[in-house]
Amino acid sequence: MANGLFDCTGKVTLVTGGNGGIGLGFARGVAKMGGDIAIWARNEGKNAEAKAELLAAGAGRVETYQVDVVSEEAIIQGYADLLADFGRVDCVFANSGRASKSRSVLTLDSAEWHDLLAVNLHGAFFTLREGAKAMVKRAEVGEPGGSLVYCGSLSMFHGIAGINNYAASKGGMGAVIRGMAAELGQYGIRANTIAPGYIKTGIGQGDIEMSEEMKVRLAQVDAHFSAKTPIHRPGRPEDFEGMGAYLTSDASSYHSGDTIVIDGGSLIYPPYAF
């Protein structure tokens, strides 16, 4: 039975870094609407847990792959395996990435600069490029459509001291997404960026080895961001479920070239507001 406006039945969504956090939240939204899901992530144990959760949520089929998106060759092989298993891909969420280890532009060395860009910029680009190739090939035989999605951040808009390589990767891919939207629209393929605000991904929660000091610090971080967000709470992975269903389904078939901010309103909230 179809799930109505956000029906994902018969659609295949690839989520990189999809075994936890925002990626798993996005995938769970697709699963609840009956879609099929492929997860690329390196932790085999977490992949198995995510697969079980997504199947329980309603996914038609879930397959997991250990793909390192730093490697262009691994990405190309990953698509070969995915297409051999599913026969198609309808949505790609390039979500894999890491935080910057830098705290100052003055000490940001070349190793850290390039290492982060290898994942957040280059890996994301190659992931979306190869997904676009598969979608264009399908369009050329009479079935246009597809959705390319990148996980950006509020650093695309804000000047944030120290994490210049992180901001460069997010801003750079934002420009790439707009270029893809302009070029690939002729095939019915749309391309969009999701820009999350402060999201609690569950890291450290339930960890009995986490010190009391760390628990207090995390609570202080939550309180800090909640106070500066019009919706007074941190974001959660489940806040991305609806976006996963929307961007995978045909409901978003005319939505392209956008940066969709999911941040509880913090982007529009000035620092002096009270």
Automatic annotation (TrEMBL):
It holds the Pfam family adh_short_C2. The keyword Transmembrane helix does not apply. InterPro entries: NAD(P)-bd_dom_sf, Sc_DH/Rdtase_CS, SDR_fam. Gene3D superfamilies: NAD(P)-binding Rossmann-like Domain (3.40.50.720). It catalyses: 2,5-dichlorocyclohexa-2,5-dien-1,4-diol + NAD(+) = 2,5-dichlorohydroquinone + NADH + H(+). GO terms for molecular function: oxidoreductase activity. Signal peptide: none annotated. It comes from the Bacteria. This is NAD(P)-dependent dehydrogenase (Short-subunit alcohol dehydrogenase family). It comes from Sphingobium boeckii.
